[in-house]
Fold this protein.
Amino acid sequence: MSTSASSPLVNFLRQSYPSAVPSTASEADISHISHAIFPDTAYTDNEKVETSQWLTTSSRLATPDEDEAKHAERLGSLNIHLATRTTLLGSKPSVADVALYFRLAPALKTWTAEERTGEHGYHNIVRFIDFVQNAPLFGLSLKAEDKVEIDVDHVDFVRKPVDHKEEKERKKKEKAAATASILDGNDETSLPVGRSKDQAGKKISKD
């Protein structure tokens, strides 16, 4: 017996991709229909596995009774993952992107400006949601009122790009300063009684 009638996600997919999602499809079939939805996209075996994993992750993100700390951790990991990717697979579209949109969009509608683009906000998730709901690549069948309202020009906090060379030099200087501080402290305690650092230096130079 088909469970598609009781699956909002399957119904959402069928609404946007009626020819790719069979009437008998259930959530168990979703991971296998990426190619039917995006016929011009080829997927490697690893990408197929990754798609399945992201479908599982998206279902967990939609679980209302999940531990708050664990939920924040999942969102944080997803936000980092999307920092250098347009889609979950990098640039290729997949059914996992659509599933993640379906499950996260309702929550994103309730996020505050801080949660969206604040210093500790999920900037990349917001960008991803906006891309999926508007990109012709996905072609979602959405009414204007069903979309998440996102002002792409509104950013509460702009992160300064990390200059890896500068960061490396900063850490090097901090380490050198810390080492020098330790050595200076050791010099004071290791000098013989009644002998100053200058006297010690002269003694060493004569030797």
Residues 187-192, 200-207 have pLDDT under 50 and may be disordered. The two ends are 94 Å apart (CA to CA). Residues 20 and 37 are 5 Å apart (CA to CA). Residues 164-190 form the longest helix (27 residues).
